[in-house]
Amino acid sequence: EYEGDRNAEGERHGFGKARLPNGDTYEGGYENGLRSGNGTYRFKNGALYTGDYLQNKKHGKGVFFYPDGSKYAGDWVHDQRHGYGEYLYANGDTYTGEWVNNKRHGQGTYVYKDTGSKYIGAWINGIQEGPAELIHLNHRFKGTFLNGKPLGHGKFIFDIGCEQHGEYIQPVQVKEIEKEEEEDEEPELPVEPKWKASEITKLTSWSPHDESAPRKAEG
């Protein structure tokens, strides 16, 4: 069902309201039969999008309310979260930053609602990866992340005015000799990187961009 403007060819063109066969509804701009310009699309499952369209796709700026209570407000390109935007997750966590093809990618800040901790730094394909800072209640960690875990040189900075330098080392996993009968063995748990402290200093300005390790004092 459609009520609204049409062009000379009879295509939906201008402003209109439509009810789709699947129960979704759309109210907004059309151009040559396709949703274009500003509009509001209500999904039968309770989701809602309000924002820019281009040739039937979410494109430009828009806000999407998901059925689970989460919400994304920001840039869209061809139906994908792409550009800059803020996502409020169902559990209350938030991510504000860059997106590529629906994934957190580039620079962004993720705030954990339960702990108040904050990750500020680089993301690759939705995973924390690259130089970053993890800020907790009374201390923060500055270093590099790989696959969502800190790895390599970094430092903890404590609000009392000192720092602990060191590195996160990936422990080597010792595999038991596999017996052929044991096909139903448990999946291996990933081994967490271990922190190895090297020195405690007063506050310094070292950052993961400078070099791979803190400079040693001239001897």
TrEMBL record:
Keyword Repeat assigned: yes
Pfam (any one): MORN
Any single GO CC term annotated in Swiss-Prot or TrEMBL for this entry: nucleus
Chain segments carrying region Disordered: 1-22, 177-219
InterPro entries: MORN
One GO-annotated biological process of the protein: axoneme assembly
Keywords: Cell projection, Cilium, Cytoplasm, Cytoskeleton, Flagellum, Meiosis, Repeat
Biased composition (Acidic residues): 179-189
Listed Basic and acidic residues bias regions: 1-14, 208-219
Subcellular location: Cytoplasm, Cytoskeleton, Flagellum axoneme
Top-rank lineage group of the source organism: Eukaryota
Keyword presence, Metal-binding: no
Protein purpose: Functions as part of axonemal radial spoke complexes that play an important part in the motility of sperm and cilia.
Protein name as it appears in the record: Radial spoke head 1 homolog
